[in-house]
Design goal:
The structure holds 2 protein chains of 2 kinds.
Chain A: E1 3-14, E2 17-28, E3 32-36, H1 43-50, E4 58-63, E5 66-67, H2 72-78, E6 79-82, H3 94-104, H4 109-122, H5 138-150, E7 156-160, H6 168-185, E8 188-193, H7 196-202, E9 205-210, E10 213-218, H8 220-227, H9 233-241, H10 251-264
Parallel strand pairs in A: 3-8, 3-9, 6-7, 7-8
Antiparallel strand pairs in A: 1-2, 1-4, 4-5, 9-10
Helix pairs in contact in A: 3-4, 3-5, 5-6, 8-9
Chain B: H1 3-7, H2 18-39, H3 42-47, H4 49-65, H5 75-92, H6 95-105, H7 107-112, H8 118-146, H9 155-183, H10 186-202, H11 215-223, H12 225-237, H13 247-268
Classes of the chains: A alpha/beta, B mainly alpha.
Chain lengths: 265, 274
């Protein structure tokens, strides 16, 4: 079995800051993998390189068998991506959003309608397909976005902070749908989060990122065992990074998270 | 095709050839923009207020004072194509704001990770920016009828005028997209947008003939695509309207401008998401 994602010494520098520092990591096909860390740890930069939005400064990454630098379009054909920010268009209906995605992601014309109806049904949005997305709740928008990212049945799905700004109930619903989707399609999922609970709940393996490096890697249980009996992932995080999760994050990050939260709320 | 690619599930078996793929992808992007307009046409409609004022207020006053020599054409007949081009320009030059907005939201990222080529994405935006101007064209024609402008109504002339408006607006919308990619924030964009529009407008034959300009301004006017747009519109819209250049030349200049700007914008567009 080949790996769905492979990074070797993947590095990205912005001026003097090294956002991702020689990251080496493999994610197996069908695995649900979580990148955990505070704002500014390098999670989003890593994802942006893997989905071909950002060129690595050095190092390589292979996603679904294609090199992100040399074969970006083949990578794009094989992946789905839900950005941290809001990617559904609020001025269009759910069905229109799905229609645009299905065309943009080259879903064969004959299958478009069926896939759109099926995904509305699957995501629990069948009743609101013709409503403008700006009237949706945060959880509904996220579900729609995930549906949009999965229409072309990608091999690898990237979720950047999928539940940021959502209330606990909406968060659980999103988790439930991601899990069911993965069971149905066998998709490899890489998600970033700074919620311990989310990583423990969803992910088979977790990588803890700190200052652009992988500080720890393993199953949630393994990581907890390394720190000591009864340790929570929170304690694990503090153990491996020397800081609590609440630290970190610039003014810009805070502003962005709040903005996202407000839109989703 | 490698064995890995064949292993990918659900890839369309009948993938269209590249040029068709390009057109389909461009149309997807343009179509999305048009649907947005259909849901909320307020912005385009408010943009149509300005040309009404230019024709009803500015045009009437200048026509009365007879300070601008426009040959055999009345000043109002001379001005109308200029006002149409101007209103399309003013609307298109702020097109980039919407693109920055899409970046701030995350919609842009979604487009950029799709298999559609960057050129197709930008072309779709350009087409959408061009088609938006048809709303203004419609409004200007209505006002022009009401104030008694001598318009041409033959189908080829109308189609030609629409094409020239769309090409010009597509060019300026793409130019706006390039500026958006360079300045990256809405605040900076607003400032730059204001600075750009007036020189483009004044260094063209929109409201006075080029012959009236000082030499240095004439040089600038000849480098300005708006001049060629207005030139073609004057012949295509107005009964007995003269064009300085052959219309084919005007259209060629506009088309080449669009192609060059789309090529540049395609390079810069991904930077907006970084």
């Amino acid at each position: 079995m080949r790996n769905a994602i492979e990074c070797s010494a993947l590095t990205r520098r912005f001026d003097v800051v090294t956002a991702v520092d020689a990251l080496t990591l493999s994610v197996a096909e069908g695995e649900m993998f979580g990148l955990l860390g505070p704002n500014g740890a390098g999670k989003t930069t890593t994802i942006k390189m893997l989905i071909t939005l950002l060129d690595p400064t050095s190092g390589h990454a292979v996603v679904a068998g294609h090199d992100v630098g040399r074969d970006a379009r083949a990578v794009r054909r094989s992946i789905g991506y839900v950005p941290q920010l809001l990617s559904s268009d609020g001025t269009l209906t759910a069905r229109e959003n799905l229609d645009i995605s299905s065309r943009l992601y080259h879903v064969p014309r004959a299958e478009r309608r069926d896939r759109i109806e099926e995904s509305l049904e699957f995501m629990g949005l069948a009743d609101v397909g013709d409503r403008l997305v700006r009237t949706f709740s945060g959880g509904m928008i996220r579900r729609l976005e995930i549906a949009q990212a999965m229409l072309h049945r990608p091999e690898v799905l990237f979720l950047d902070e999928p539940t940021v700004g959502l209330d606990p109930v909406a968060r659980r619903t999103v988790w439930e749908h991601v899990r069911r989707l993965r069971e149905r399609d066998g998709t490899t999922v890489m998600l970033t989060t700074h919620y311990m609970e989310e990583a423990a709940e969803l992910c088979e393996r977790v990588g803890i990122m700190h200052l652009g490096k992988l500080a720890a890697l393993g199953t949630p249980a393994e990581l907890e065992a390394q720190v000591g009996p009864g340790a929570t992932l929170d304690a694990v995080f503090t153990h491996f990074t020397g800081t609590g999760l609440e630290d970190g994050g610039s003014y810009r990050d805070v502003a962005r998270t709040r903005r996202t939260a407000r839109r989703l709320g | 095709m490698t064995s890995l690619e064949r292993a990918v599930p659900h890839v369309a078996s009948a993938e269209p050839v590249a040029p068709v793929r390009f057109l389909l992808d461009s149309w997807t992007v343009a179509h999305a923009e048009i649907r947005k307009l259909a849901h909320d046409p307020t912005e385009v409609l408010t943009r149509a207020v300005q040309p009404i004022l230019w024709l009803l207020v500015f045009g009437q006053v200048i026509a009365q004072s007879r300070v601008i020599a426009t040959g055999n054409l009345s000043y109002m007949d001379f001005l109308t194509p200029g006002v149409l081009a101007q209103s399309a320009l003013f609307s298109a030059i702020f097109f980039g704001i919407a693109v920055i907005w899409e970046r701030d939201l995350g919609v842009l990222h979604k487009y950029l990770v799709s298999p559609a080529s960057r050129e197709a994405l930008v072309t779709g935006k350009a087409v959408a920016g061009g088609l938006r101007a048809l709303v203004q064209t419609f409004v200007v024609y209505i006002v022009a009828v009401l104030v008694g402008i001598h318009l041409r109504w033959e189908i080829p002339a109308l189609v030609g005028a629409a094409l020239v408006v769309v090409l010009g607006a597509a060019g300026f919308a793409t130019f706006s997209l390039i500026v958006a990619c360079l300045v990256r924030t809405r605040e900076r964009f607003m400032g730059i947008g204001q600075i750009l529009t007036m020189p483009l407008f004044f260094a063209s034959s929109a409201i006075y003939p080029i012959a009236m300009m000082p030499g240095w301004l004439q040089v600038l006017a000849h480098l300005n695509p708006l001049t060629y747009q207005v030139d073609a519109l004057r012949a295509l819209m107005i009964d007995g309207g003269p064009s300085t250049y052959p219309i084919a030349l005007d259209i060629s200049v506009l088309a080449v401008t669009v192609v060059v700007l789309v090529a540049i914008a395609s390079r810069l567009y991904p930077r907006l998401a970084q």
